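Ex. 9. Protein: NISCH protein.
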Amino acid sequence: YPSEFLMQKITEDNQVPVHLHVSVSLQYVAGLKGRALVEFFHSNIAEVENEELRHLMWSSVLFYKTPNVEVMACVLLSTKAIYFLLDDSFIHADEHQSDFWNKENSDCENSSFHLSCCFVLKLNDVQSVNVGLFDQYFRITGHSADHIVTCLTRDSYNTHTFIQQLMAVLSLLARTPSPEPVDKDFYSEFGSKNTGKMENYELIHSSRVKFIYPNEEEIGDLAFLVAEKMDGLTNLPSLNILLYVLAFQVNHVEGSAENTSSLQPKTLILTSSDLFLFDEDYISYPLPEFAKEPPKRDKYQLADGRRIRDLDRVLMGYQTYPQALTFVFDDVQNQDLMQNLTLDHFGE
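Predicted structure tokens for NISCH protein:
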């Protein structure tokens, strides 16, 4: 350990997404290659001497206690734990995090050191993994609110690869076997399922960690929610969600030294007739077992919605991935203009 193949794979994965800015400390990590990266892991991050680094991924992450702060992280998966090496700007983003992050290095702030926080989630503490719609993100849940993290990969390949690697390292854990199932009678077996709501697909791993995937009903619920936002929709059964993707809305900041742009995380949903942008809560749903009350906001909040027939043109940037798209809509004040003209001229 480690094999040449593994070192090559980790080196290839060690690339910060070009559209996201990271602190100096994480830029240092992103510059490491091969054996230097493995040695950095063992000397600075690993908690046990004999643990092996198996996978590396760059992703935006959300914590259950700070659901509004999306932060860039280098995610390192070993045979003992999942390490989230965090951008140090996260510490200053929210004053309410002081109890969550016991920060003892305030005297180092003015020195030449670049510090990063590392959030550690032991594999033994992982209870379930919820995979989001179309593998755009996944949520890892432990035994308390401090142990819930969502990785917003915005990429089905990265999600799939990480889940496969996680299953592989979980297989190495020596856990006590589950107790033998109690034989159920006919009524309790079928009575408990009569809740009127189909449960999501669950895969229970040999380590007793649940991997939960969304079912078709989740898309149906989302289509219904989208339909509610569309006024005067008559053909509800024919409403199909063609595309669901986690994206960023670009807001240009005027007046700065150079016109910079801020990226606002949004969920883009395309139907056969409309284009929607939603603010989605990626961390609070489904409710963890210890939650005493529902979250303060709904899972989906409509941010913007436009009709496809009002779309004038789509501008495409020529840069490499991620691609920038600009949707230009006709700025018609009254959307039902033609209908009103007909009424005015030919009706009572």
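Check your answer against this statement. The CA atoms of residues 79 and 191 lie 41 Å apart.
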